[in-house]
């Protein structure tokens, strides 16, 4: 066991080889998968608790309140208490709903963020699937989520749910284009879709600093369109509690509601993680060119802290504008995507190609 | 199924592209109807084709109850109508009774009533501003509005013991004299709120999403405003000069200087701006009066049992929502023969269908919010 917080490669490899030595080929792999699965489930549960607590405290901060304060120290056990309540609550199903699809939807919504989670590099060597098409994989599986939302809206037998689901269908399908195109802008510079290589290419500086103006434009588009893709304010028209009561999950209660709730926060984490990886170097510490002294000082902070620091900074940014801006209307939202973001994005890719060809980046 | 949820007149029509219009029941339990209002929406996709308000869920027959109560008791019923302008409602009834008795009201009473009326208007507009933001999805504004309103309700609490339904007025004057702290606290509040009101503009008025959501939405023309009887800030946003404080001044409004805010656009943004500007005017009115409260009695002498001379009496006041009319027919008994309230919310709601046709569901919520409906005021 050669455990090091700076580099998990050796640690992960030693577990892997230990499994291979002690078990025959398929059983060792299955045990490996089970360990990863348990780790992810624990991580998801902790992530959900943390992010819900963070959102409550952060929105309280913007609204001049204290937020939860009663359960546990500074209300830290409040989300835990809520989860326990949701688990023990009766799960109601409306009378004329399509019960199979109604139950399925909650799981479909959960599947996509969990799958996307597998491709995210948490630290050096702490990476489940390092595909050579990493970015493509994440964007592909994260679009499965919209199926769950459409199923939930359709099967609930509720007009509000249906309107919410249709809105969300139009919205997610449109904004996926912008998310992918803004990521492609950086891919032009890295020349690879593999996440570990994208991070490695930022060894002498993050793309947001190195990539000149088009990288900054791409980041702004990414943060706007990925917020829209995850159905969060100011783009939460699918839920729109003042118009559609709760949109597509109006009829869900108990643990199935908790799935929708958790999926929203896990999606938020994944977006922030992808943004941090592509634009801010993932777990790569802040390096400036070849200044040895500075780079070595930054390397003292373990990569895993860099990763989570960046991710939570981006999450804070997204919570910030959720709690500040009013909600857009459906047509304004589609106008924003098709008339503004998409053309700007295409022009930006062209600009980035020019920058890349002429070597105008650092 | 359709017959069960709709009225007979509204049959869904099939249009040429073979899509079908459908019904949605918005309310009586819905977050943005602000109470138990049921709206029957005919929708074509997201587009609102028709809005039918169904009212009466919170009807408490206040007008009928007034017919068996004494004139002092009637006052206490009125603050349950438009609970956000409770003081102004009370004042309306008191003024009607005082006119009927031809009482000479002390100057001190008139000035204090005017100050508290304007404070009520401020509190009501603050709450409206918060809720307006919340209806458009900006939940933070809700808490900002309530934060500032809290200071006004604290002043009310110190003055008369109640924070919402105040009952400070009685026919002939006021129930108690003002608290010694009243002037100081009100001045402190004005100083505080003058700094906070520009914050409202920063958070919502200047926001591009907000202006996009409200400009050109829910247009009520000048003619429609008059024919529907839309009064108050909603009417004034359509260029209908209907401020009772200017037209038929009552209490101390004849001695103060203030501007009647009029916009001509008639859209949601104009209705929003009218109320924001009115908050500045209300503060200006209070400033003129707060240091000049005359000394004197706090009530005129009335008999224990008030009997109005036979006849008909009508008094109009400007509440935070518009023109409130109180009509009393007396037959020289200790309770009135008939009481009728012309509530502003009822007339304002009637224009909702005209205003929201052709706009989206999200716009309907914004339009309803700018009308500033208080459902107990509509149902009474």
Molecular structure report:
The complex is a heterodimer of chains A (362) and B (380). Helices cover 69% and strands 0% of the residues of chain A. By secondary structure, chain A is mostly helical. Chain A has one domain. The longest helix of chain A is centred in the N-terminal third of the chain and has 38 residues, at 25-62. Chain A is globular, with a radius of gyration of 21 Å. With 380 residues, chain B is mainly α. In chain B, strand 7 and strand 8 (338-342) form a beta hairpin. In chain B, helix 7 packs antiparallel against helix 12 (268-290). Chain B is globular and about 70 Å long. In chain B, 48% of the residues are buried. Chain A binds chain B through residues 59, 62-65, 159-160, 163, 167, 233-234, 236-237, 240-245, 323-332, and chain B through 22, 24, 30-32, 46, 133-140, 143-144, 147, 203-204, 207, 209-210, 212-213, 360-363, 365.
Total discrete domains of chain A: 1
Q: List low-confidence stretches of chain A.
A: none
Q: Per DSSP, what share of the residues of chain A sits in E-state strands of 2 or more residues? A: under 5%
Compressed to H and E, one letter per element, the order of chain A equals HHHHHHHHHHHHHHH
- Kindly report the greatest chain-chain contact and the residue count on each side: A-B, 29 and 29 residues
Task: Please tell me how large the radius of gyration of chain A is.
Answer: 21 Å
| Helical coverage of chain B, percent range | 40-55%
Q: Which band does the percent of strand residues of chain B land in? A: 5-15%
CATH topology of the largest domain in chain B: Cytochrome-c3 Hydrogenase, chain B
Helical run tally of chain B = 16
Q: What would you call the shape of chain A?
A: globular
Q: Counting H and I runs of at least 4 residues, what is the number of helices of chain A?
A: 15
Task: Characterize the main sheet of chain A.
Answer: none
